[in-house]
Write a structure and sequence with these properties.
- By secondary structure, the chain is of the alpha+beta class.
- It has a single domain, classed as 2-Layer Sandwich (Beta Polymerase, domain 2).
- Helix content is about 30%, strand content about 35%.
- The chain contains 3 helices and 5 strands.
- It has a 5-stranded mixed β-sheet, sandwiched between helices.
- The longest helix has 15 residues.
- The protein is globular and about 40 Å long.
- It starts with a helix and ends with a strand.
Length: about 120
């Protein structure tokens, strides 16, 4: 069975997804360490939806490079339990990720890889 982004967000309902400076710092450190692969990026936290939003424009935005960078980002930020879905459009590749601990602390991140 395939999941969609609404199901990912639904899974996060019973989890504390408040802003966490540690996650923000981990994401920023990851992006700074990969500046040679990234043309530009924008990271925000939405206080209403309690989710991080990350927009990335890559030097070479082919599907394999996007997948590789996303997997590295997940590895550097994820908690014990992580799930995500991917949507591909003509202008971008989007990932919707939810990661949580056993004690119901977590975060939601929407990641948009923009095509040139």
């Amino acid at each position: 069975m395939f999941m969609n982004k609404e199901q990912v967000f639904t899974m996060a309902r019973d989890t504390n997804c408040q802003y966490d400076i540690g996650i923000w710092s981990d994401i920023n450190a990851f992006l700074e360490n990969n500046e040679d692969r990234i043309l530009n990026w924008d990271l925000k936290f939405n206080e209403v939806s309690l989710s991080f939003y990350l927009s990335i424009k890559l030097e070479n935005p082919d599907k394999q490079n996007v997948r590789s960078l996303f997997q590295e980002l997940v590895y550097s930020t994820e908690y014990t339990n992580t799930i995500y879905v991917r949507e591909i459009s003509a202008k971008s590749i989007n990932y919707y990720m939810f990661s949580s601990t056993e004690d119901k602390k977590g975060f939601i991140m929407e990641i948009q890889f923009l095509k040139a």
